[in-house]
Amino acid sequence: MEDQLERRLVPSHQWPSLVTAVADAQDGTLVQVLPGHTETLDAPLVVDSNVCIEGPAEGSARIFGNESIVVAAGKAKNAVFIRRLKLHIQGGPAFVIAGACTIDHCTFEGADVGIEVAAHAGRVVRIQDCFVHECRVGVSLAGGSEAVLEGTRVQHCVHGVVVTGLVISEGWNQTLGSLALANFVSNSEANLVLRALSIREQGSKVVAEDEVVLDGWPHETSSAVVPLGHGAAVLHFRGANVNATVFEEAGGAASGSQT
Length: 259
What we know:
By secondary structure, the chain is an all-beta fold. The protein has one helix spanning 18-23; strands spanning 7-10, 30-33, 38-41, 45-47, 52-54, 62-65, 69-71, 80-83, 86-89, 93-97, 101-104, 107-109, 113-117, 125-128, 131-133, 137-142, 153-155, 159-164, 167-169, 171-173, 183-185, 190-195, 198-201, 204-207, 212-214, 222-227, 232-238, 241-247, 255-258.
């Protein structure tokens, strides 16, 4: 099966850059980036076919610039596979995932957002054994998207992971399990931030009025009280698990910071 794959070497006479190799690649194409290759992105690099982009074993292929790599392929598992690239992207997000994707042994350094998982990416995103460091936000997830961060280290970012639009049901939830697989090291403000959080109770959803900021998660047990429209919710975090208890009256202690 592997012998039938089209292989494109970067750089080569026919494909001098990653941009040219990906531009018209068909599903199943293997793009191999040679040792020492460097490239600057002047426009977003959109990956809209099911391809594998593989850097050299020693990880010496580097991508620079102010524009993102954007995965916009299908929903099938491992539709796009990215391995052993180092991204040094300034400004916006270094890597945007809007379709099924696995990122393996890649490095993201110095971006505003290291990896952004869009709302319609679905549940087939894996970020494994990667290194995300010195970004404002290491990994951002929106609108119910999910990502497995197995073996990934998020280090020296302002916020390690930011999740927007998470829905938590009353009682115990394991909704953070795939994120808790990451290793968080020395992030300056928080390892986990939850924004526009919703609490599901008795068949309805209530949006929390404050964001939840957790510094020591997932290693430390912590709690937070967040105001709701008609009261407050107490959230208790223990590793991958979070428990939500809703009270009708918020009282005077409603706050989105950890306790």
